[in-house]
Design brief:
The protein has 357 residues and is of the alpha/beta class. The chain is 24% helix and 32% strand. It has three domains: 177 residues, 3-Layer(aba) Sandwich (Rossmann fold); 58 residues, SH3 type barrels, CATH 2.30.30; 84 residues, Elongation Factor Tu (Ef-tu), domain 3 (Beta Barrel). The protein starts with a strand and ends with a strand.
Length: 357
């Protein structure tokens, strides 16, 4: 039996994860993390409802629920970096940083300080423990696999982490919640920014990065529209451009934050949106400091993309070149590129640039 503190988000995944741990005979305590000092605006943040849902689940399961405020840590170690990346014209992935700095750093340290043997979350991922080394593996449900967001975890975090629903499919999780009469069984999945919640993204971002109107141009320089600030947009974005006319839809192909210009192209498969070479930095290897041998692997440049065949070539200790077998759509600087060897997530990095050849 282990003494486990589980992160309770108020959602169905953490609810079922907690129920399974209790069923296995562990001593389980819930923790609700408050990581954002939200305004009193029900249209934006559902944190209060999430806490109520987590409390109901814990009461039903006979668990204690603790609460803790990591807002300061989130602001200084996640959100300030998030804003800095947007100001520079990159599109960051705060969920990756949030997992590394908050869930599997602050939460983990706090739990160990309280005497917990380990922590647990409702992530769809698996850990293969091989003697002294832990391998991070994809969740059994490929549509919900979250190893992409966990690729920066180190060996300490993996040794002390438990993912109780990693072997389950989402449909099974909801069925388990329904059988146990958990109030979260039909709760909609969260799609908001990590720990900020369901917010209208541009409205939220404009509180910190004011709108700045600028031109939308074709790659040839023709002005075709107006935008509200180049930092709000990302490569591959279709919605919110407001470009009329005939023909195929327009997509952001590039942006110049310094001169506040967006460049757009027509057609989802326009050549300007397809890149074969990716340069990545801020590398992290799950197994430790040593990178994998250069060679053939799979990688994906966005969470919702499938992994694609590629060759990884290390250029330096913290810089690598990835050549894909086929061009990849809308590769975006600032996003994570994550590497796989079969089911195993071997690590990843932050996209610095994308090239045609």
């Amino acid at each position: 039996m282990e003494n486990i503190i589980i992160g309770m988000s108020g959602g169905v995944d953490s609810s079922v994860a907690a129920a399974k741990l209790i069923e296995q005979g562990h001593k389980v305590t819930g923790l609700f993390m408050k990581n954002w000092e939200e305004e009193d605006d029900e249209a934006y943040c559902a944190a209060t409802q999430d806490l109520e849902d987590a409390q109901q689940v814990c009461e039903l399961l006979g668990m204690e629920l603790k609460t803790i405020n990591f807002s300061h840590e989130y602001w200084t170690r996640v959100f300030q970096q998030f804003l800095g990346e947007y100001r520079s014209g990159r599109t960051p992935n705060p969920d990756v940083v949030c997992n590394r700095e908050i869930k599997f750093k602050e939460f983990l340290d706090w739990a160990v300080h309280l005497g917990a043997d380990c922590i647990a979350t409702g992530h769809y991922a698996r850990i293969d423990r091989q003697n002294r080394r832990c391998l991070l593996k994809k969740g059994r449900d490929r549509d919900k696999d979250q190893s992409y967001f966990l690729h920066t975890l180190d060996q300490k975090a993996l040794r002390l982490a438990r993912f109780p629903i990693g072997e389950m499919h989402k449909k099974q999780v909801r069925e388990e919640a329904r059988k146990r009469a958990l109030p979260t069984h039909d709760k909609k999945d969260s799609t908001g920014i990590c720990f900020i919640g369901e917010q209208r993204f541009r409205d939220f971002l404009s509180r910190y990065l004011p709108p700045l109107k600028g031109q939308i141009r074709t790659l040839g320089g023709q002005v075709i529209g107006e935008h509200q600030g180049a930092h709000y947009y990302t490569v591959g974005q279709r919605q919110g451009l407001g470009i009329g006319g005939e023909g195929e839809a327009w997509y952001v192909a590039d942006k110049d934050v310094h001169d506040n210009i967006l460049y757009a192209v027509q057609g989802h498969d326009h050549p300007a949106l397809m890149k074969r070479i990716v340069l990545a930095e801020q590398l992290h290897w799950v197994a430790g400091d040593s990178p994998p041998l250069p060679g053939h692997y799979k990688a994906k440049t966005r969470y919702r993309h499938d992994e694609q065949d590629c060759i990884i070539t290390l250029i330096g200790p913290n810089y690598t070149r990835i050549e894909f077998e086929s061009p990849q759509w809308a590769v975006t600087p600032g996003q994570s590129i994550v590497f796989y060897d079969g089911d195993i997530c071997i690590g990843g990095g932050v996209i610095q640039a994308a090239l045609d050849t």
